Amino acid sequence: MRAARLTGPGTLDLVEVPTPEIGPEDVLLAVGAVGACHSDLHILDAPAGAFPTPLTLGHEIAGRVERLGEAVTGWRPGEAAAVYGILGCGQCRACLRGQENRCRTVPLGGIGLSRDGGLADYVAVPASRLLKLGDLDLVQAAPLTDAGLTPYHAIELARPALRPGTCCVVIGIGGLGHMAVQILAATTAVTVIAVDSDAAALDLATRLGARHAVPAGPDTVDRIRALTGPAPDGADVVIDCVGVDATLETARQVVATGGHLSLVGLGGGTLAVRPSVAASIPLEASVRVPFWGTRAELQEVIALAAAGLLHADVRRFPLDEAVRAYQLLRRGEIHGRAVIVL
Ligand code: NAD
Ligand code: ZN
Ligand code: ZN
């Protein structure tokens, strides 16, 4: 079968590999669609040894059941499934509570992170990782598993602060951010302020329900402050889906006293929470560092999509153009989500 594999730092190769074997509790999935996440670029940029190689990338996967391991029940060949990508230990306190994204034993365990992912004709996954999709389109479903799930989880963590009439700033309206705007629109009554450096991303945010669109630039903080009011007021919640120095600084400067900062993006920037008492983040503010989400939350994200309330803005690529899709993503030329369709 074909697979797009990380073979060393910065190198993604389309190669022929054997179709994976499955164990008794696994399912062999015929991959239908895989979202190209910005995290894959971080994986490509990571130093040698940070991730196993060779590694088939792709952690936003939807497909159809091809073959069942002998102990698997509840699935039949041809059925459509989304892959919950996290592989927790299943035994620690967090995993036992269904919070595998907080596993205390396995750091960053995941399909397409610690073992072969979905950028291939087939992927082997434990049956426990599959969720039913019914008749949801696979190309729509793939981005739900991360671009949808991660902001959904971030919004769940922030939910106590997202009272009707409050204000949420979403920074970075790409794959994750454009889903965040829709999840806020569908599940809260907050005013959404979208921030991006790209005009087309801001247009998309406005179409999806953001009340205000603020270009990223030298006056971003002033423009947001004009909407939220001066400190100690401000944004009740800020979800930063970029995570570079500039966006973290914007987030710090616009969050209200008692507000909630959600650091989703992994752009490599630094946020000093309290470099000094005078320069602290606002009093009573909290900072969360969400990671992906839970299996139960993914089921809720799928339900939102099935109800017509969440729709990925998708640009399709065949597998042999996966490398090009990531090049365009790196250049900021993808709007919404690039999805590799098999
Ligand atoms: P993306 O490339 O699809 O979107 C990024 C968006 O940010 C684009 O619209 C871009 O124009 C905008 N942007 C870039 N620099 C900006 C700046 N300085 N100011 C304002 N806007 C800016 O990326 P994505 O796939 O949505 O991922 C976003 C980030 O989230 C990545 O760092 C990714 O690794 C991370 N991520 C984290 C988790 C998690 O569990 N915490 C999960 C998935 C992705
Ligand atoms: Zn991802
Ligand atoms: Zn665990």
Brief rundown of the structure:
With 342 residues, the chain is α/β, with parallel strands linked by helices.
What does this structure look like?
With 342 residues, this protein is of the alpha/beta class. The protein folds into two domains: 2-146 and 292-341, Medium-chain alcohol dehydrogenases, catalytic domain (Quinone Oxidoreductase, Chain A, domain 1), CATH 3.90.180; 149-288, Rossmann fold (3-Layer(aba) Sandwich), CATH 3.40.50. Helix content is 26%, strand content 26%. It contains ten helices and 16 strands. The strands form three sheets. Strands 3, 5, 6, 7, 8, 15 and 16 form a seven-stranded mixed sheet that branches. Helix 4 packs across helix 5 (175-187). The mean pLDDT is 97. The structure holds nicotinamide-adenine-dinucleotide and zinc ion (ZN) (2 copies). This is NAD(P)-dependent alcohol dehydrogenase. Belongs to the zinc-containing alcohol dehydrogenase family. Residues 8-340 form the Enoyl reductase (ER) domain.
CATH architectural label of the largest domain? Alpha-Beta Complex
End-to-end Cα distance: 12 Å
Shape: globular
* Biggest sheet layout: 7 strands, mixed
CATH topology value of the largest domain: Quinone Oxidoreductase, Chain A, domain 1
Q: How would you classify the helix and strand content by structural class?
A: alpha/beta
Q: How much strand?
A: 25-35%
CATH class value of the largest domain: Alpha Beta
Query: CATH H level of the largest domain: which superfamily?
Result: Medium-chain alcohol dehydrogenases, catalytic domain
Instruction: Spell out which ligands are present.
Output: nicotinamide-adenine-dinucleotide, zinc ion
Radius of gyration, CA atoms, in whole angstroms: 20 Å
Q: Which range best describes the helical content: under 10%, 10-25%, 25-40%, 40-55%, 55-70% or over 70%?
A: 25-40%
Query: How many structural domains can be distinguished in the coordinates?
Result: 2
Write the H/E string, N to C. Answer: EEEHEEEHEEHHEHEHEHEHEEHEHE
Whole-number mean pLDDT: 97
Number of helices: 10
The count of strands amounts to: 16
Low-confidence stretches: none
